[in-house]
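ping. complex inputs:
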Amino acid sequence: MNTAERVACIVDSENEPDWDFIIRPGKGLFDLQLKELWRYRDLIMLFVRRNFVSKFKQTILGPAWFVIQPLLSTIMFTIVFGNIAQLSTDGLPKMLFYLSGNVLWLYFSSSLTLCSSTFVNNAHIFGKVYFPRLVVPVSIVISQSLTFALQFAFFLCFMGYYVSAGAEIRPNMYIFLFPVLVLLMAGMSLGFGIIFSSMTTKYRDMRFLLEFGVRLAMYATPAIYPLSSIPDKYKFFILANPMTPIIETFRYGFMGQGTFSWAYLGYSAAFTAVVLFVGAVLFTSVERTFMDTV
Amino acid sequence: MNNTVIKVENLSKQYRLGLVGTGSLGHDLNRWWAKLRGKPDPYLKIGESNDRTQNGDSEYVWALKDINFEVKRGEVLGIIGRNGAGKSTLLKILSRVTAPTTGNVKVKGRIASLLEVGTGFHPELTGRENIYLNGAINGMTKSEVTQKLDEIVDFSGCERYIDTPVKRYSSGMTVRLGFSVAAYLEPEILIVDEVLAVGDAEFQKKCIGKMKDVAGLGRTVLFVSHNMAAVENLCGAGLLIEAGMISFRGFCKNVVDKYIREREICADIKLSDRKDRYGSGGIRFKEIVFVEKGKKPSFELSCGCSVTIFLYYERNIKVDRPECSLAFYDLKGNRILYMGTRIQKKLFLNVFLKGKFECKIDRLPLLPGEYLVNVALDSPDGVIDHIESAARVNILPSDVYGNGYLPPPGEAYVFCDHHWKLTDID
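pong. complex structure:
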């Protein structure tokens, strides 16, 4: 080990410089050891690669599934919600409207569900080797972000087609908020994911709650309807959902239709920060002894 | 600068017995409430020592209690003890898989632990990809792995299959690949847990050799094993753990001797009084009796004799298709003979309430010396009763070849009938 690495693996040695690290019963409330996480960045990337490669081994269509999945559900939504139930789409082309909602919601919900099983799914590895446990959820969110990038590109193609066909779509300056939206979704799914994964180690009830909750939450998110179509007395509940401003801002920036307000988006950002903080506290308190209870 | 690389201070680990269920939420809330008021954990003090022979009335148990020891740089320490003594818990804490309940461990240098080989191998990835993944899980960077890739592949002997998914590998190959990555981790401190028990003999030799090299380079090795011969061969110092406490620390040879003596003492206790057993307990062994043909029951048998082993048992609940087995070990923990109903395709469908299993050996091939016998009763649902060192048998010399000669003592364990001949080829 060279000096730089030795310095990096000093975890807790301020008071006794003679030791590289000290294994103690507990540690601080908020001790994420991001430095150590950085040292394991190669592992994060290898996990990302593993997630991808293992997902589509022995499939014929392979990565095409990334696109087929949202496409099929969009077609389904267009038929059921658009044509049969005749829900409003703010005057946007139905396919495009549902595709945008679908792709965003899929990104958030799949990162969340996968992160939430961090401890339970990796118990066999965690029980044998030490590495910063945060590596796993972080790598999951990165892999899901790559998937999302593909699906987003697909959405852009779709949008290009509609624009050239002369549909009423007006991208505007708010399109530049896109990176912020992605970061917010990543942060929120990571935060929620590690909260649930920490609680699932001891109480498996959480898993049911989550599975069920994510499915229900989609209906409380403007993925299949625009916020503008919600009666005023229910608006508050839909707006309480931190995913609402993200989807609405996305639609507003890319297609010129939707509800945008800095206050709403600020709420989402604050929510994300709180969720990440709570997640970090829970995660650090659980990761040290979860092997005894999982 | 002082030479200590691991310093363990007052280390204890408490486990909660039983299932995690609705009750645990109550305990959690209680504990949290105590913590909030600045009181100590209400469940910490009621834990009992790790004595599995007694049925404690507490739900909590100390797997390790007040462990103190130091390991010096370059030391190769063998950690021995019976199953459940706390060895694995100690290794888990040292490799930071779980945290101690009280006390702390101070460490100098990078630790790599081999509680298992090939951790994190993904069946769909190729051998090469898995080397990278496994290396990274154990704390290597990508460039470090790339540097050593050729050596790792070479050591594993899997060159031909390196770009084949690991799911197509035989189990032996997977283990070899896993160990090869571990062998090139080059940590300052290496923790090894009986992983050598797997793999073929040739590879085991290679592994022991590699571990000796590691130790020779001034690195520190902690080695846990049940094989006393391997421990003695590899380690300079030993640590004996009993019931969660250190019972002896010293030169490896002395520690191994003490462990063997204790096992022998154990073996002299009647089976019905033995508490250090595993299994569901549906059937319990009560007594083991050796009867040499034409003699009275005794634990002294002559070499090459015809002997019948009786295993008396009592049945508590109905058990489906039990499989009975017996194994002879030498004092160093090497298994010499194994006899089981399963390998003889013998199926006992009806197990009486009280009865005895009988195993007849026509010509006992053990050479003179002392041996320990393990007995086990398994079923498709798991272990029913298992006792290590159930008996100590002394094999006495006898004239098995009818010519007054026996193979030299200490150089062989068993004898067989054989015939020599010299023939002229032309």
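Chain B touches chain A through 49 residues (CB under 8 Å).
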